[in-house]
Design brief:
Length: 264
């Protein structure tokens, strides 16, 4: 994969809207932010860069005010055959996005469909605007979700609702997504990004190592049995007792001041 510095993002915009926060905006509005391979590569590269940049403590991913993403770029994908799809570089980009170790918040307005919904579900927290629509309509194209849709959606909303979406191509609106736990909050669409950035700012003020381990520990609940996951949590909890930030957090509490965390 190209280095972030080398690839000159064009399908996305990257900004630093506040201290310790990086903002990625998908930028193909004419085709409803369809996720062509280059776009996915750029997102993955920015996340790889953010993962190792000590100054970045949270990333917000948005599609802008009108649409999150209408899925994989159908025009690009239709050129594949049964052999080339097996070696699709997109798999590596998804893997990189999945491995991002810091908080990732998706700010979703409008459609999050197919790969767009799968991208939103790679985020740790989804903030939805009241216009948001979530769906896995791949069945309309004679295929099924291929970037985790059948698995992540089912783990979040349960079998029956996931089946409804994946088998019929039906969409789920923001209020239903909230009721089913797919999204954390629904806000008026013109406030989605601001709310996601405010949440990112709140998270960025917490102890970075604790935040990252909390993320890993929550994700373990999807990956491990209860006993193994509880053992992981206990080990992670104990490891944080070795950090300077734990001492700072307790000192700040005793001294009735705000903590200044350094990520050490
Ligand atoms: N890929 C490429 N172009 C797209 C996509 C897409 N996913 N979605 C929209 N576009 C393009 C349209 O072709 C159109 O282009 P043009 O103006 O040149 O005709 C432009 O965006 C605007 O689209 P609409 O006029 O349809 O806009 P609307 O606001 O009326 O509708 C929708 C928006 C509902 C999002 C509609 O465009 C739609 O249904 N899009 C497709 C959604 C979809 O099926 N997504 C799942 C994709 S599948 C996937 O993610 C994984 C596997 C892909 C493999 C494909 C193998 C063939």
């Amino acid at each position: 994969m190209a280095d972030y510095e080398d690839i000159r993002p064009e399908d996305i915009r990257v900004e630093t809207p506040g201290p310790h926060i990086r903002l990625i905006t998908l930028n193909r509005p004419r085709v409803r932010n369809a996720l062509r391979t280059r776009l996915l590569e750029e997102v993955a590269a920015v996340l790889r860069d953010a993962a190792t940049d000590d100054d970045v403590r949270a990333v917000v991913l948005t599609g802008g005010p009108d649409v999150f993403a209408a899925g994989a770029d159908i025009t690009e994908m239709e050129a594949h055959d049964a052999v080339t799809i097996q070696n699709d570089p997109r798999v590596m980009h998804w893997k990189m996005i999945r491995a991002f170790p810091k908080p990732l918040i998706a700010a979703v307005n409008g459609y999050a469909l197919g790969g767009g919904n799968e991208l939103a579900m790679h985020a740790d927290i989804i903030i939805a605007g009241d216009t948001a629509q979530f769906g896995q309509p791949e069945v309309n194209l004679g295929i099924i979700p291929g970037a985790g849709g059948t698995q992540r959606l089912t783990r979040v909303v349960g079998k029956s609702v996931a089946m409804k979406l994946c088998l019929s191509g039906a969409f789920m609106d923001a209020q239903e997504a909230l009721a089913r736990g797919l999204v954390a909050e629904v806000v008026p669409a013109d406030q989605t990004l601001d709310r996601a950035l405010a949440l990112a700012a709140t998270i960025a003020k917490k102890a970075p190592k604790a935040v990252q381990l909390a993320k890993v520990a929550v994700l373990k609940s999807y990956q491990l049995g209860l006993n193994e996951a509880l053992a992981f949590e206990r080990d992670a909890f104990c490891s944080l007792f070795a950090t300077e930030d734990r001492l700072e957090g307790i000192a700040a509490f005793r001294e009735k001041r705000k903590p200044v965390f350094k990520g050490r």
